[in-house]
Write a structure and sequence with these properties.
Layout (H helix, E strand, L loop, with lengths): L2 E5 L2 H12 L14 H13 L3 E8 L2 E9 L16 E8 L9 H14 L6 E4 L6 H9 L3 E7 L4 E8 H8 L6
Amino acid sequence: MTVRFRPLDPVQDAELIHAWVTHPKAAFWMMQDATVEDVEREYAAFAADPHHQAFIGLVDGTPAILMERYDPSRLELVGLYDPLPGDVGMHFLVAPTDTPVHGFTRMVITEVMRELFADPATARVVVEPDVANKAVHALNEAVGFVPEREIQKPEKKALLSFCTRAQFESATAVGARI
């Protein structure tokens, strides 16, 4: 499988993304009741913010991944931890499917991390998934994330976790390909 990422276009991609973020399996995205217009507005705001970018991941040319990259020193985690130079925040979502492929989501998070670490300025990836999202905690651990502590965000109780380049390379044994 080949994976590549392209910038999300808020207008062109809103309908596609709407189907993903409102799906029952995307409950932790907290957009279950969003309209297509809400999704377009949300991602237009991201596109206008120099500290937040959204991407569509194409698997063998088919849109299958939503990835967000943000500066945690300016968004999401301001005042909740001490950021370091090179910290990059990340969210990802796999498109819902009627025909799940074993190992697909693990491949996706590996490719998301590879994409983030392709930028030499990225020293560490920071995530803050809901404490109840046990499935994503296991995926995060598989690619090298180490939980630090629970934090209280306005919208959720989250598990603050970090993954350095070295931790990612060690966990996935793909260091030579980054």
